[in-house]
Write a structure and sequence with these properties.
By secondary structure, this protein is mostly helical. It has one helix at residues 13-61. The chain has one helix and no strands. The longest helix is centred in the middle third of the chain and has 49 residues, at 13-61.
Length: 63
């Protein structure tokens, strides 16, 4: 009679640490990209607001 194979997978603390570390680095890189995109969007929004202010000022002041 042969012994049945173990139905479980052995997980070591080192395996968990390595996986968490790689996920953390991956998430950190993605988060940096998102922050850069948000910053660029706020720059564009600021430019649009200034442009609208200039147009409104010219129309109200007749310049």
């Amino acid at each position: 009679m042969t012994e049945p194979e173990e139905p479980f997978t052995k997980v070591t603390l080192g395996m968990v640490y390595t996986e968490v570390k790689s996920l953390r680095e991956e998430i950190g890189g993605e988060l940096a990209k998102i922050k850069a995109q948000l910053a660029a969007q706020w720059v564009v929004v600021g430019i649009v607001i200034v442009a609208l202010g200039v147009v409104a000022g010219r129309s109200f002041l007749g310049g």
